[in-house]
Amino acid sequence: MRLLRPRSLRGLPSAAGAVLLLAALALTACGPSAADASPVATSKVDLPPSYKFVPANITIPVGTTVTWTNNDNFTHSVRLLDDGGDVMVMKPGESVTYTFDKPGLHHYDCSFHAQNMKGTVLVTGGAGSSG
Ligand SMILES: [Cu+2]
Predict the structure, then answer these.
(1) Which of 7, 25, 108, 125 is the residue whose CA sits 20 to 30 A from 86?
(2) Over 70: is that where the pLDDT of 128 sits?
(3) Ligand 1 centroid to 98 CA: how many Å?
(4) Residue 1 forms part of a structural domain
């Protein structure tokens, strides 16, 4: 049997174990996909060429007009699921707008690609102003 240089190996196993443990903890703590749900404060939604609304979840003050712009190569729409189900069709390059007068969470999707294209508009406020 041989001796395996005990001096240079001293302390290494525990150090390596600590590094592995820290790496495992870091991976556990930094889940990449879960923290993406908070709405973005904007009134403009883009439709890039990938069948989606960007950002998909937005927040606006009540009374704000939201503009969706279709930058994809296909016709899409905004179907206002919580606002009467109206469908606003956008050909490539076109925009549609809608003014949200009711506070709350409003869901919409693309009526042509409802499985892939969904979004929400969180409408805030409204208690302070009259009219
Ligand atoms: Cu679509």
Answers:
(1) 125
(2) no
(3) 17
(4) no
